[in-house]
Amino acid sequence: MSRSQHSRAEQLAAEIERDILDARPQPGERLGFRTELIERYGVSPSVMNEALQILRERGRVLVKRGVTGGIFVNDVPPQLRIGVVDIWFDGLADARDMFEARRSLEDLLSETALHRATPEDVQMMAWALDELHGSREDPKLFFVAILRFHIAVARAARIPYISDLYATLSTLLANTIVKARFIDDHERPANESVVVHGRLLEAIKAKDADALRRACRVHNEMELRETHLPPGKPDDEQPQLAAHEAG
Question: Phi and psi for 180 in degrees, rounded to 5?
């Protein structure tokens, strides 16, 4: 296979993988016969064969021969809806547990950072906030910027082992993202996420414990909305900053 054909096969494998993630099929669900996929995607048999081999090596599909054979879904990466982003993680069967472990440390680290953060720490948080503000059109960059903001907070807390554990969990989540996609009508809640992270920063900078608790409460309610969404399920209404702060 030529270099251009191999490149096309990699593109096709990525396209089929995206279609699998969008459809959220169950493992063992049939995608079709090889000939059907060739016609569906408009490619040559050699390109399809190479793409299927790539997907087999990634553990995404199974290829079975015979009348009852075809191309079947082998595994679908775990998916979480985190704030305004749907994210699929490759190779993390316990992605939800890992995310919950990370999240459970955030309030402790934020409260400690309130007392220990240096001006240099605050600057690192501000840079991450700027990155978050500028990445509202790219779901993966948006989520990674959120992780970097909280890693900066964790490092400012300077709690031996716990700060490093938090950074390790966050980095592992960032490095195993296979796909990220904004939810529908994400603009307003994405802007609200930028605002609430800004309030976390300002509270830590001002060493204002009451403001930090309010910002943490809003942040926690906004962040993890739902996991492993079934096809066609409507999104829940996003929380309103004003409504939370009025409570």
Answer: -140, 140
Distance, in Å, from the CA atom of 20 to the CA atom of 12, rounded to the nearest integer, reads 12
**Three-class DSSP labels, 33-91:** CHHHHHHHHCCCHHHHHHHHHHHHHCCCEEEECCCCCEEEECCCCCEEEECCEEEEECC
Cα–Cα distances in Å, from 201 out to 116, 130, 134, 139, 209? 13, 12, 17, 22, 12
**pLDDT by residue (tens digit) across 125-148?**
999 999 999 999 999 999 999 999
Residue range 5-46, pLDDT digits in tens: 668 888 998 889 888 877 777 888 999 999 999 999 999 999
| Residue of 83, 75, 92, 98 lying closest to 24 (CA atoms) | 75
* Dihedral angle of Cα 89, 159, 200, 122, to the nearest 10 degrees: -110
Packing angle, helices 45-57 and 3-23, rounded to 10:
60
Helix orientation angle between 187-206 and 209-223, rounded to the nearest 10 degrees: 150
Contact in structure between 13 and 37 (CB atoms under 8 Å): no
By the 8 A CB rule, do 222 and 16 touch? no
As a whole number of angstroms, the distance between CA 38 and CA 12 comes to 10
Q: What distance in Å separates the CA atoms of residue 102 and residue 169, rounded to the nearest whole number? A: 6
- 62 and 74 Cβ atoms separated by less than 8 Å: yes
